Amino acid sequence: MPWFSPKEQPSAPDNRIAASLAHLRALEFQARGFSFLPRQPVQSILSGRHGSRLRGRGLNFEELRHYRPGDDIRSMDWKVTNRTGKPHVRVYTEERERRVHLLVDQRVSMFFGSQRAMKSVVAAEVAALAAWRVIASNDRLGGLIFDDHDCYSIPPRRSRESVMELLSRLAESNAALAAGQTSKASQLNIAMDNLARGLSHDALVIYIGDGFGWDDRSDELLKKMSMHNDVIVINIFDPAEIELPRLDELIVSDGEMQIAVSGNRAQLDERFRDSYNAHVGHMLNILKRYGLPLISVSCAEDPVNQLLKALGARR
Predict the structure, then answer these.
(1) Which residues of 2-15 are buried (b: 16+ CB within 10 A; e: fewer)?
(2) pLDDT of residue 7
(3) pLDDT tens profile 152-185
(4) Span 274-287, average pLDDT
(5) Considering its fold, how many domains does the chain have in total?
(6) How far apart are CA 275 and CA 282, in angstroms?
(7) Domain span at residue 226?
(8) 117 and 209 in one domain?
(9) Quick check: pTM over 0.85?
(10) What is the rounded distance in angstroms from the CA atom of residue 284 to the CA atom of residue 300?
(11) In sequence order, what E strands does 136-269 have?
């Protein structure tokens, strides 16, 4: 949770604590200079150079016709050719649009931030940037937003209405988070399973969250989704989850109330590092095993610049 000195304490929640719909809508004008299309700059984590090349749009079967000089021999349909005695080829056309599913984590584990904003806010901002970019690329946008109790599914559509539905749900989820609630680790697998059951092939799945609750079942669901679809994981983290600020006493606040945290410096550092490693360590290892791309986004910096850097673009 953001730390403020007494003079800096906000009198009311702001976009650092709960992202408003207006704030997420305004990000449309910053969602430029990067993409999730197959053609990526060489510096991009999604380029073939890094072993994470995207499949791109799928292929639709168009027709079966007689072979013509110049046709690719690999497109021959040998069953029809043998049955008719005449060479036939199968003709495919590339899909004009791609389905992109955003899987956005809005559990209480995301209601934490030490500098710029809460993890839940940064996740909403990254999701908004991705959503606006997807629609600008003429692809279909869908999503599944989950908290500790429910999953909210948005079917893929190529329209601004789909973006607005997703952003409205994100703003509501942001506003509902509060300190003192208990985060449900198993909800991650429930959300992943719900999304996996609705996938077909050649879609792009982008998970945006902190990986809390990732386990062996998550590994299975990840493998299932990635067999015929592309998967990108955007890990939202706060620097204080890895290393506590160098202060003798920490003042922790949720914007309304605050408490002082003190104790053995070495023990606190070790506990925070162990907690972080337990939440995301397994997830990071399995992504490396499957060769899936990971984009880390810190709560302490502008998410736009971080996405641009990760995807090989420049402002």
Answers:
(1) bbeeeeeeeeeeeb
(2) 46
(3) 999 999 889 999 999 999 999 999 988 767 778 8
(4) 76
(5) 2
(6) 12
(7) 21-54+97-310
(8) yes
(9) no
(10) 21
(11) 140-146, 151-157, 204-209, 230-237, 250-253, 258-261
